[in-house]
Amino acid sequence: MTDMTVMMDMMDMTDKTVFDWSTLSATEQAAVLARPKLDDSSDIQQTVASIIETVRQQGDTALVAYSQQFDGLSNNALVLNKQQQQQRINDLSADRKAAIDLAYGNIRRFHAAQLPQDIEVETSPGVVCQLKNRAINAVGLYIPAGTAPLPSTVLMLGVPAQLAGCERVVMVTPPGKAAADAITPEIVYAAFLCGITEIYTIGGAQAIAALAYGTATIAKVDKIFGPGNRYVTEAKQQVSQQQSGAQIDMPAGPSEVLVVADSAANASFVAADLLSQAEHGVDSQVLLVSDSAELIQQVQVEVALQVSTLPRQAIAKAALQHSRYILTADIQQAVAVTNAYAPEHLIIQTNNAEQLALQFTSAASIFVGAWTPESAGDYASGTNHVLPTYGYSKTLSSLSLVDFYRRYTVQQLTKTGLRNIGPAIVTLAQAEGLDAHAAAVSKRLAVLALSQE
To answer: Which of 73, 87, 290, 445 suits 97 as a labelling partner, its CA being 20 to 30 A distant?
Structure first.
């Protein structure tokens, strides 16, 4: 790339994307922090609804037809059998196998520390209450495999399912266009480590429908996990709203990162971190919030230089069109801007990064210091990369082991226990006008009143 080309790219990404926060009105500030508009058109909703209903009515026949329509495969058997799985694993290079092994170990160690504990409390004499945790019986894991097959997502979903002890763990992933069994060896090996052998070669909204309602080949699951494109996301939302469908992990939107940096930050590192998210998709959003105008300029130069070297530069450049460089009066204002945005990923590259991290209240996953790229969390540090996006991190949490459990309560009262709290229950039930509730207690109290026990 010539210097002139770099300069032209810089001009494309500067004036439109640099904002001096202190000079903006409240309305302008809100506009700067707005996400790229999601395409939630009625066309997508109707298309997905049609796919779901077709799969419900036609089952495997619909899945095979959609595989031919979308993947160009007329002979998709839908199942990746154990022999095919082993063949794919045999094709895996030693270095990639070792990398997956390392990531698996770290992710497992971090998630194993999250094992929930049952509790038991005697709230009153003779009144024992318990909170119990049980693994969800059947879970479905959706693994994207379009422009970027994601074995890392297999680990992020498969490890907690394995640790929780879910009785049935199902993986669906789009087949390769060359052949129905052309799933990457990395995905199959990651599944093997997680103990997943039930693998289906189907993707898109049709895969979500199959998981939610079941077909002759794919039995229904109770909860669906995993990211996907806008059709997958829409399908997950639709099946989760139907009583006969399935629950889902969380709403998902385009990937995003926000970097908070001061004048001491390494501009090359910051640019690389921004581009690591920009290359995800054309609707990804990346933001730099800094109190240093000089750093912002340096980062823009680095972004223009580095993006030219990326194989996915067309995607990254499209994402950069709605990137933001925000100049703040000081770092405290940068913290306020960040908390208002509620980023999926937050990277802190400041002199006091560790102390500053305590002030952020809405990020889904935080990466502290110059030596902590967001890529570490995506692959191998141990934390989970399935995160709420689009501002949902203000109220939703990153995926963790407890998402693969259901929690329920147990209570048991002795005769003494009912004597202790029964009169209060009767009083409260009568106050609410629920006489049958009161009677269920008062009849027992009457019997106890005649008893010598």
So the answer is: 73
Q: 313 to each of 247, 317, 318, how far by Cα in Å?
A: 36, 6, 8
CA quadruple 145, 149, 155, 160: dihedral positive or negative? negative
Q: Using one digit for the tens of pLDDT, what is the confidence trace for 206-234?
A: 999 999 999 999 999 999 999 988 899 99
Match 């629950």 to its residue by tokens.
247
How far, in Å, are 59, 214, 225, 448 from residue 246 at the CA level?
16, 10, 10, 45
Count of Cβ atoms closer than 10 Å to residue 276 Cβ: 21
Q: Could you give phi then psi for residue 408, rounded to 5 degrees?
A: -145, 165
Residues 397-452 have pLDDT tens digits of 999 999 999 999 999 999 999 999 999 999 999 999 999 999 999 999 999 999 86
| Cα→Cα distances 281→61, 162, 228, 241, 319, Å | 32, 30, 11, 27, 7
Beta bridge partners of 292: none
Q: Of the listed 256, 279, 344, 374, which one is catalytic? A: 344
Q: Is 279 a catalytic residue?
A: no
Quick check: 37 and 342 in contact, CB under 8 A?
A: no
Q: Which amino acid is at 65?
A: A
The pair of structure tokens assigned to 425 is 């229950």
- Hey, what amino acid is at 20? D
With tokens 């997958």, the residue in question is 232
CA gap 360, 368 in Å, rounded: 12
The single residue of 345, 354, 374, 385 carrying the catalytic annotation is 345
Q: How confident is the model at residue 11 (pLDDT cuts 50, 70, 90)?
A: very low
Cα distances from 401 to residues 25, 108, 373, in angstroms, run 42, 10, 24
Average pLDDT, the chain: 93
Q: Terminus-to-terminus CA distance in the chain, angstroms? A: 91
344 has catalytic annotation:
yes
Q: Which two tokens stand for residue 256?
A: 């995003």
> Residue 231 CB: number of other CB atoms within 10 A?
18
Among 386, 366, 104, 40, CA closest to 233: 40
CB 403 within 8 A of CB 156: no
